[in-house]
Amino acid sequence: MWGILLANLGYLRSHSVDSSVALPDLTICIPARNEAKNLRRLLPSLLKQDYPSVEFIVWDDGSEDDTWEVLQSVDDPRLHIHRGDGPPDGWVGKVHALYQCTRRATGDCYLFLDADAELTDATALQRLVQQHVSASTTVSSGFTRLQGGAKLLVSLVPYAILTGLPWPLVARTSLPSLSALNGQCWCIDADIYHSFEPHAEKKNAVLEDVTIGRYLKRMGHPPTFLDVQSSVKIYMYEGLRDAWRGFRKNAYLLMGGTVFSFFATFGYFALTWLVSPLLSAWFLASLYGLKFVSDRASGFSLATTLLAPVSFVLALALQLDSAVHHWSDRVAWKGRAVPASGD
Fold first, then answer.
1. Model-level pTM?
2. How far is CA 84 from the centre of its chain?
3. What residues contact 54, with CB distance under 8 A and at least 6 apart?
4. 10-residue block means of pLDDT along the chain (343 residues)?
5. Is 61 within 8 Å of 87 (Cβ atoms)?
6. What is the C-alpha R_g of the chain?
7. Measured CA angle at 336 (ends 176, 93), to 5 deg
8. Residues 5, 6, 11, CA angle at the centre, nearest 5°?
9. CA-CA distance, 86 to 337, in Å (whole number)?
10. pLDDT at 342
């Protein structure tokens, strides 16, 4: 885990940015279901962007709050809003919403951005796209700055990203399982997108970012991971209850989505987070060290680091809860049932 963490930190710092690169015409695709509060924060940050040629496409996925009214209140020719009644059979809502956005996109590059995002300043979009172009890649994914509540759980997201997947090997190996995307923020060249239509290909994937990342790698376009914390903030959850429900829908699938893979992975995490620190003070110090470095790299406080044992115990309980809910087909999110297994 230390090897993966340090390699990933070096990898993130290895990407240089050429500020003189030509900026492509850009389309930002945003899925929105019951996102009125988040859109009141995201839209102003988009509209103040100093980007030469950009359009924003938002698909309201059958919202039951004031999402549509918030979208209608914005008068800007760059913003294009559309409304649907929900996904057709066989589609997951977010995947269908993004697919519909791409049917209307005109840019040479697509940026997929979650509605709980916020761009940090007027030049954030320029910096983000410059990173994508400078990396000489067709697909890139962003390591974002996570904000909001439930930090004891949310801080485990960058921890998992930095200690779980060795990003330097993504482009150097042919194994599709060594690949992923961060669905909160990722970029793809439009011609590559339409050559492979990843959202249509993975239309029923709850973990669409993971499955699309693996699919694109299999098609010869492995994602590049870029540190975009200075440009993009993500407000994932307001509190522990929302975070628990949100992570519950994904945790079991991230652990393989089968009974065997769940128990194998859960056993690994239980040994790493619970058993080994009880057996040795050195293991406890090492675990604290991993969390300390991960938290510093992703902007979490020292207080969050000091409570790392609480985070890990919560994570184990959450994994069990997610498995039980998936086994009993009781997982729901934003008023809709979540498929019991991933793609």
1. 0.94
2. 23
3. 25, 26, 27, 28, 78, 107, 125
4. 97 94 97 97 97 97 96 97 94 97 98 98 97 97 96 97 96 94 97 98 94 97 98 96 94 94 96 95 96 98 97 97 94 80 45
5. yes
6. 20
7. 45
8. 100
9. 12
10. 44
What one-letter code names the amino acid at 46?
Answer: L
Strand-pairing partners, residue 84, are 61
Q: How far apart are CA 290 and CA 282, in angstroms?
A: 12
Q: In this structure, how many other beta carbons lie within 10 angstroms of the beta carbon of residue 77?
A: 6
Could you tell me the two tokens for 251?
Answer: 């945790």
Q: How many angstroms separate the Cα of 298 from the Cα of each of 48, 93, 315?
A: 25, 29, 18
pLDDT score of 340: 59
Q: Is 312 helix (H, G, I), strand (E, B) or coil?
A: helix
Distance CA 62, CA 94 (A): 11
The span from the CA of 199 to the CA of 205, in Å, is: 9
Residue-level pLDDT at 287: 96
> Can you tell me whether residue 189 is helix, strand or coil?
strand
- Helix residue spans in 105-223 (DSSP H): 124-134, 151-154, 156-164, 190-196, 198-201, 208-218
Give the span between the Cα atoms of 278 and 268, in whole angstroms: 15
Evaluate whether 342 touches 204 at the Cβ level (below 8 Å). Answer: no
Candidates 98, 24, 329; CA nearest to 340 is 329
Quote the CA–CA distance of 328 and 3 in Å, as a whole number: 38
Residue 343 pLDDT: 43
Annotated domain spans of the chain: 2-235, 242-337
27 contacts: CB under 8 Å, gap ≥ 6: 54, 55, 56, 57, 101, 102, 105, 106, 107, 109, 110, 111, 190
CATH topology of domain 2-235: Spore Coat Polysaccharide Biosynthesis Protein SpsA; Chain A (3.90.550)
Q: At what angle do helices 2-13 and 156-164 cross, to 10 degrees?
A: 90
